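pasting for the record
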Amino acid sequence: MRMIAIVAALVAAPVLAHHGWSGYDSAKALKLTGKIVEYGYEHPHGHVRLETPGKTWLCVLAPPSRMEIRGLTKDMLQPGATATVEGYPNRSKPEEMRAERITVGGKTVELR
């Protein structure tokens, strides 16, 4: 029984850490426009790698179910598409941001 509890705690730890939105600096809003070079449309959150002048960002998006309900489909996030992402930088990972909204294909989607 103890082994099950240990395994459960190890599996849950990355999920809990991932949901640490306090790791992002909401006092420093970012608005980035660039080219999508990679995307992920999986749980717990989707993502895009956005190539901007001088830097490629990992933009953490919403869960796929929320994106789908709000009209942001997987097809819209294909590499080569131009996107504008608004959100907040990660405090300890200078290449990562949490996205609040994304504009792609002429459509703006609120992610939070």
